[in-house]
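User: I'm preparing a small set of examples for a lab meeting where we compare how different chains pack in three dimensions. I only have the primary sequence for this one, and I'd like the structure in C-alpha cell form so I can line it up with the others. Please keep the answer compact; I'll paste it straight into my notes.
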Amino acid sequence: MGQGNWKHALGAAAAVMAASAIAVSPVFAAAKAPKASHGEASMSPAVVMAGKLYGNIPNVVIRGVPAGKAPWVVDGSYQLKSSLFTASGKWLIIPKQGYLENGQPVPAKIGGTTNGIAEVGAEITFANASPIVLPPVKLDSQGDFSFHDAIQWPKGAAQPVVLIGPEKNGQLVAWFAASDFLADYGQATGTAWMNAAKPVKTTVAHEHAGAKK
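Assistant: Understood. Below is the C-alpha cell output for the 213-residue chain.
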C-alpha cells in the first residue's frame, strides 16, 4: 500500500473513532451520579446531640421525672437532630444485683428481666421549654427497643436531656434510661463555678533570712 493510501486509511480510522466517542460519551455522562452541591448538603439537619444511654439510679429525679423503683441497665445510644430523634437499645432490664428504691436488694424473680414492662416511651426535656414526649414503642422480653420519630424543636430550647421509660396518659411516669446529662452539662457548670470560686493568687514578697532590716 502506498504512502497516500496509508494516510487515507489512518484518517478514516480516526474519523470512525471520533464518531464512536461522540455517540458513546453521552451514555457514560448520564450514568454518572451527580455530585451534591453545598446547598443540597445543608438541607440535611445537623446533629444537635448524640451519645450513649445509661441505666437509672433509684431515687433520682430528672426534671420532674422520677427514676424507676428498681435499678435498670441498658446497652443503647441515641441521636438528636432538630427534626429527628432516633434511639435504640438492648438489654434494658433490671439487673440481678442492685437495690430498690426502698433499699432492699433486687428480688430474684425480677432480676434479669423487664418485669413485665411491654412498652417504653421517650421524653426530650429542656432547661427552658416544654418537653417533647414521643409515643411508646415495644420493649421485647430481651429489653430491645427502637425509636425513629420526627420532632419539632421548640424555639430557643436548650440543654436537652433524653429519658426512656414507661408512659401513662401521654406522660413519662418514670425513667429507666437517660442520656449522660452529668457529662453534658454538670461538668461544664461545675467547671464554671470552680473557676469563679477559686481565690485570686497574690504575690507576697518574703524577706531573705540574711537580709538587713
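A couple of notes for your slides: The chain has three helices and twelve strands. Helices lie at 3-31, 38-41, 181-197.

User: Perfect, thanks.
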